[in-house]
Amino acid sequence: xxxxxxxxxxIAGGGTAGWITASLxxxxxxxxxxxxxxxxxxxxxxxxxxxxxxxxxxFNNALGINEKDFIKATNxxxxxxxxxENWGKLxxxxxxxxxxxxxxxxxxxxxxFWVKSQQMGIPSNFWDYSLNYQAASHNKFAKLxxxxxxxxxxxxxxxxxxxxxxAKFLSDLCKKQGxxxxxxxxxxxxxxxxxxxxxxxQLENGLKIEGDLFVDCTGxxxxxxxxxxxxxxxxxSHWLPCNRAVAVQSDRLDPxxxxxxxxxxxxGWQWQIPLKHRTGNGLVFSSKYLxxxxxxxxxxxxxxxxxxxxxxxxxxxxxRRLKQWHRNVVCIGLSAGFFxxxxxxxxHLIQTAVIRLLKNFSHNGIQxxxxxxxxxxxxxxxxxxxxxxILHYKLNQRNDSDFWKECRRMEVPQSLSHRIALFxxxxxxxxxxxxxxxxxxxxxxxxxxGGIPLDYHPLADTLTDSQxxxxxxxxxxxxxxxxSKMSTHEDFLLKE
Length: 496
Ligand SMILES: Cc1cc2nc3c(=O)[nH]c(=O)nc-3n(C[C@H](O)[C@H](O)[C@H](O)COP(=O)(O)OP(=O)(O)OC[C@H]3O[C@@H](n4cnc5c(N)ncnc54)[C@H](O)[C@@H]3O)c2cc1C
Description:
By secondary structure, the protein is of the alpha+beta class.
């Protein structure tokens, strides 16, 4: 193993992954290490990736980003969750709302009491007790740490933003933090003949960029990690069957809603991402069931408002790179793998990858133990998210198309089939180590698409029927009161 100290980091690629990587590395490592980012205006970026999840707030804070500046610069809106339409049966709708729901008791979470209330015949919807869902469905938003007058958690939120403006925002920040940007197309990756490590990148314009550590952020191309080092790919297309997307932008919504919509169609699903100045739309589909032309027709038929761009088709393969750190190359972003955008996890994975790289950073030359640890942590993180995304496909109840019937019939990873069976029978759900998604996220998808579990935790019987009734009434009153006092999402954005 090469033992040179890392003095120069070269980031290949300037999409969202490249600039997020550069911004955190330069913020944390300061001027002690030279950071160079190579990007090519001629190649451009993938140009999608506009919905995020709540941990982005902590990440932006770590970069010292002012929220108002960020919202203004990226035309961002607030995201309180994802509304899934037609994912259970045709006509069904539920939300994976961020934040917790109801009030958890020691050893017995709220949903057990709610399941009991259903068995008692109390008419209510699980999301009556979700502050995020109620705010989203009334187009409201306010920053609330707690549900008013209680210590129950308040609003949890993320953003929708313009991906190219976000990359620009971060590149300005990087300039101030000393990152050197080099424009040019990488035409060759030069390997050291002894160690097999990457020595330098040869650009078409004649420049040769040398480094000690290389971060492959070249997107689906995977120029260093795959095209040069051939590290292999764990293909998940038998579980995540969609392999293409059509993306198109349209006029802004009126009003601008504070949530993403995910609408299931016959052979895939459509996203609607509301930004301040326009709307991002797209259809994720399986080429086994739909041609590109059919997909374009379908998405255009389901868009309200004027089109602002021509539809663009993007092909991809779901899965992950088998080694995300190999020799002196770490891959981050689409070069590392891709799930599909269903739960907006890819930008988050870029952020956790950079944090992980910093935690495993080689201060005295690259050690294979650090590489192994990094790869192991990444594998676990990816596989937990993979299961959560497969869950949506597996739990559909649609009989109107072969695509959905096939998804329902598919064998899923054992880790997932266990979770589904446990919840169905007992109402219990547990967060595994390295699980990004908390119990409440799993519960919402399982309740939203799979239905109410057969049983609840016996501790829910410690409350009498009338106490259960009072609990449900008082929680709903608290949520409704808080939402009634919030400003509209649009008013919040106007003030930002
Ligand atoms: C359809 C779709 C929808 C998505 N929606 C979401 C979402 O809602 N939320 C989310 O979190 N994520 C989403 N993603 C993922 C998200 O788009 C990516 O994770 C994110 O944009 C990062 O991409 P990237 O920087 O890895 O790749 P890219 O944006 O493709 O950037 C690659 C960079 O490498 C450069 N490059 C490539 N080859 C060379 C070369 N030879 N020489 C020099 N430079 C080169 C390019 O110029 C570019 O700068 C979506 C992805 C797809 C496909």
